[in-house]
Design goal:
The complex is a heterodimer of chains A (307) and B (118). Chain A is of the alpha/beta class and 307 residues long. Helix content of chain A is 27%, strand content 26%. In chain A, the strands form five sheets. In chain A, strands 1, 2, 5, 6, 7, 8 and 20 form a seven-stranded mixed β-sheet that branches. A five-stranded parallel β-sheet of chain A has the order 11-18-12-13-14. In chain A, strands 10-15-16-17 form a four-stranded mixed β-sheet, with no helix packed on it. In chain A, β16 and β17 form a beta hairpin. Chain A starts with a strand and ends with a helix. In chain B, strands 8-5-6-10-9 form a five-stranded mixed β-sheet. Chain B has a three-stranded antiparallel β-sheet with strand order 1-2-3, covered by helices on one side. Classes of the chains: A alpha/beta (307), B alpha+beta (118). At the A-B interface, α2, α3 and α5 of A face β5, β6 and α2 of B.
């Protein structure tokens, strides 16, 4: 089967890129999404803070996503849910988990990013349950309806960790502290104010977790200061990495270390006709910036297809 | 009294210095827009926050609907609002923007997502 444009991922980047390409005159578009609904990570980001620059008002993640989902449906852009892209080749053949092979005129990569896991940190100690990345805890609480734990230490002060400090506090957990190895938090100042200070959660800078204790379940951590802190849950908020496993398969060039995509000004990767947008390109602080970049990627792909 | 506030209106997070006397802001510096001024005056006189959470739903595609207060509510009542939110059980379908709790601290709790029936 042939498709003018295949967009991989239906998060904020994929949705805005597809809409932008449509508005530039491309009609034969398919968005492929592995989850069972459109919107990507925004669906679990139930806090406000989205859309200030794009819409001039503050929306929650699901509300921000809903505007683009409505537009995709209104325009009649085709999408597939519960479908994963298994392979992309250099000549733009896209293989789906259903077995279907698509010959794409152009591809927009919009797979987003992943969280750095415990394995990336070299923390000594046992391997009990109760250790989650902040985003996994967010999904458990906001989508699946599970409470990850009661007494929490958060390692790393990225924005998702700060947001989850407040979220878990609101649902009755005791968030004991956020520890950050650097001398400055990686999160936004507004999140330190409204997620930590509002609830008197201490932020310990120049501090990290050196050991995790517990056999079946986490029982505590040792800090780099030597202090022992009891807890049943550890959330990790220690950075994001563009999810480029698929991009590698078709020969997209990546920057070593960051895993960012090396691309041209118009967002075309090293592979002819393969474009990128959003967090798969590089991690963005704001969804508004993802949207802006995705609109550009959609335009670039349309220009490429028309040439 | 002089106190520094972090404006929470946008990602800039301006550090706004306020001179406060008898619970009123006398002068401000450090904000880069008028939102910062509004925020700090509010934060000094009657601090308020938007509350976002989830509500249980029966018969839906998923077990939860995300919700928020339509407007900000007094900061000291955040946990009172959470208590009320946690009492609610909805039945699918739920529409985006549906009123979930009416008239709570001068505003409503509304849904922020759509939840279709299973």
């Amino acid at each position: 089967m042939k498709k003018d444009l295949v967009v991989i991922g239906a998060g904020p980047a994929g949705l805005a890129a597809a809409i932008s390409a449509y508005e530039e005159g491309i009609r034969d578009i398919l968005i492929v999404e592995r989850d069972n609904l459109l919107g990507g990570i925004l669906n679990q980001c139930i806090h406000p803070g989205f859309g200030l620059f794009t819409f001039g008002e503050e929306l929650t993640g699901p509300e921000y996503a809903a505007r683009y989902i409505a537009k995709v449906k209104e325009l009649g852009i085709e999408y597939m849910l519960d479908t994963m892209v298994m392979d992309i080749t250099r000549d733009k053949v896209v293989t789906l988990s259903s077995g279907l092979k698509l010959e794409a005129g152009a591809i927009i990569l919009a797979m987003g990013c992943r969280e750095r896991p415990r394995g990336a940190l070299n923390i000594s100690g046992t391997r009990p349950s109760g250790i989650f990345t902040a985003g996994t805890a967010q999904r458990l609480m906001n989508i699946e309806g599970y409470m990850p734990g009661k007494e929490v230490v958060i390692l790393g002060s990225g924005d998702i960790g700060l947001i989850m400090a407040r979220r878990m506090t609101l649902e009755g957990a005791k968030v004991k502290m956020v520890v950050e190895i650097k001398e400055k938090s990686g999160g936004l100042a507004r999140n330190i104010a409204q997620c930590l200070d509002d609830f008197n959660i201490p932020l310990l800078l120049n501090t990290t977790v050196t050991k995790i204790h517990g056999k079946d379940r986490v029982t505590g951590v040792t800090l780099s200061t030597g202090e022992y802190v009891s807890c049943d849950t550890i959330l990790l908020s220690v950075g994001l990495i563009p999810e480029n496993e698929l991009s590698k398969k078709c020969g997209v060039r990546l920057e070593e270390g960051s895993n960012n995509i090396i691309c041209s000004e118009d967002l075309m990767t090293d592979v002819d006709g393969v474009f990128c947008s959003g967090n798969v390109h590089h991690v963005h602080d704001l969804v508004d910036n993802v949207t802006k970049e995705a609109i550009k990627a959609g335009k670039s792909a349309a220009i490429y297809l028309r040439r | 009294m002089e106190k520094t506030y972090t404006c929470i209106n946008c990602p800039l997070g301006c550090q706004v210095k306020a001179v406060i006397s008898e619970g009123k802001v006398i002068s401000l510096s450090g904000n880069t827009c008028e939102k910062g001024e509004k925020y700090v005056v509010k934060e000094v006189e009657r601090p308020s926050r938007l509350v976002t959470s989830t509500v249980k739903v029966i018969g839906g595609r998923g077990p939860l609907v995300s919700v928020r207060t339509r407007e900000e509510i007094p900061k000291e009542h955040i946990f009172d609002v959470m208590d009320e939110i946690n009492k609610v059980v909805l039945k699918a379908p739920v529409g985006l923007g549906d009123v979930i709790i009416k008239d709570i601290f001068g505003t409503d709790v509304i849904s922020t997502c759509e939840m279709e029936e299973k």
